[in-house]
Amino acid sequence: NAGVTQTPKFQVLKTGQSMTLQCAQDMNHEYMSWYRQDPGMGLRLIHYSVGAGITDQGEVPNGYNVSRSTTEDFPLRLLSAAPSQTSVYFCASRHKTPGMGPTDTQYFGPGTRLTVL
Amino acid sequence: KNEVEQSPQNLTAQEGEFITINCSYSVGISALHWLQQHPGGGIVSLFMLSSGKKKHGRLIATINIQEKHSSLHITASHPRDSAVYICAPLKGVGNQFYFGTGTSLTVIP
Q1: How far is A90 from chain B (nearest CA, A)?
Q2: Cβ(A105)–Cβ(A23) under 8 Å?
Q3: What does the pLDDT read at residue B47?
Q4: Residue among B87, B91, B93, B95 at smallest CA distance from B47
């Protein structure tokens, strides 16, 4: 299993540009989510999905769109990049209701470091 | 006020020391996740627990749901344990994780 993969690893954008961060998982997890991590703050939820065709907003959704056309893929779109979106972005996946078994945990992708100039 | 408080925020230890990181949270939860973030940025799951204690190698996690508190212990610490440790309770309502800001641990040889 590749686990959770994210591309690209690094990206520099100019203000106003748009782009898509890709995320894929091969564990057949129902639940996928996007977080951003900023210095001095905990991970914050941007958007999440509980299954194909179902998405919902998290804590900080403004400026981002998501879609979930398949179980495996959950792309994050920046509509018009702003310097405030400079951050490290993590995609994660898990079973919808995590149990206590060794695989009932949340798996994180390697992250995308985004800089908006 | 942050719903998740971790202490200490920064910790420096000598190799071999016993380390404790604490996590307190303010809302009802169904489980709690301990994560490790390496200096390169990758995030790895350590434990998911909802009661009592779990042990994996030199790592031990405990939780008291009623007291809204969890601890992560590292026995015989080693420089490779240097990382940021993040506590992430799973809210009982909404089924969402929320995250502490982490404890930065440095273990000196």
Answers
A1: 9
A2: no
A3: 87
A4: B87
- Taking phi first (over 0 means left), then psi (-120 to 50 degrees means alpha), and beta for anything else, what does residue A96 get? alpha
Nearest Cα neighbor of A78 from A101, A51, A112 is A112
Q: Would you place residue B94 in the very low, low, confident or very high pLDDT band (cuts 50, 70, 90)?
A: low
The minimal CB distance from B49 to the residues A48, A100, A113 is found for A100
Q: At CA B20, angle to CA B14 and CA B22, rounded to 5?
A: 140
B102 touching A (Cβ < 8 Å): yes
Q: Do A42 and B102 touch (CB under 8 A)?
A: yes
Instruction: Write out pLDDT tens, residues B18-33.
Output: 999 999 998 878 889 9
- Which pLDDT score is estimated for B73? 98
Length of chain A: 117
Give the residues of chain A that fall short of pLDDT 70: 1, 97-104
On the question of a cis peptide bond just before residue A61, with omega within 30 degrees of 0, the verdict is: no
Subunit contact A42:B101, Cβ cutoff 8 A: yes
List the single best residue of B10, B37, B43 to mutate versus A (max A Cβ within 10 A). Answer: B43
pLDDT at B1 over 70: no
Contact B42, A4 (CB under 8 A): no
Please provide the DSSP assignment of B80-97 as one string. Answer: GG-EEEEEEEEETTT--B
